[in-house]
């Protein structure tokens, strides 16, 4: 469309230039013909000088008027030419602008077409990709549904198998638990029987040891009584002889004190042995205790209640077990002799695991 407008404008410009040239040529011929006509007229007419002068004046005036008219015409033609030139230049500028705009529009149209084709290609590609994606998603959904169905079947089969396995495991556990309880009951019974036997044997041994210690104490008592009788006899003899009364009395007093002290020592040792035996009966023995010992100090009340038990030396692990055994016994037997009781209220014992 813009190319056609440019062509029409060029044609119009050429026509205007052609008309201008034709007008100039026509004006030039007219000015040349007119003097010839006037000259012929003058030559053909014979008049008097006054008339000639008048006519010459008229001719001059006509020529001047014609010249002025020609100059006016030429000036108008020149103005028209300038105006036409300006119009031509303006038309050329307009045509150049139209051509530039046309080129820009064509470029923009080409770019728009390229962009449209690119967008269309992208849209077509996106549509194709979407179609493929939809097909892939459909296939994936179908495969997922198939896999889900298979998974559910496998899960159901696994659930049934697991339930059966758990049932078998439960039955096996019940059987094992029943077996374990039976074995535990048997073990406890054997342990209880063994412990009872050990306690019986320990009691028998303790009884034998206590009887032996009582026998020894009785022998010591008889020996002490014999010695006391001898001492009394000696005292009697000393008193009868009246040999250094005060020396004899001092000797007798020392002798009686020594016998009493020996009795208290023997009783203290005998009860200490009983206490040691009671602690060992309640001692939880470990394999690592073999060959080790503990010296334990006990503080007792007058009736034998344990007030305190502390470690006085030896292996710490054995002492810890010995203190636990003392706490388990909680009360030890006490003799009737106040002197022996006083000795037993703060006593040290050596515990040797056996």
UniProtKB/TrEMBL annotation:
Gene Ontology terms: biological process: bacteriocin transport
Biased composition (Basic and acidic residues): 126-236
Parts of the chain that traverse the membrane: 6-26
Gene Ontology CC: membrane
GO function term, MF aspect, one: toxin transmembrane transporter activity
Region (Disordered): 126-238
Domain of life where this protein originates: Bacteria
Record flagged with keyword Membrane: yes
Pfam families: TolA
Keyword list, A-Z: Membrane, Transmembrane, Transmembrane helix
Protein name from the UniProt record: TolA
UniProt organism field: Photobacterium aquae
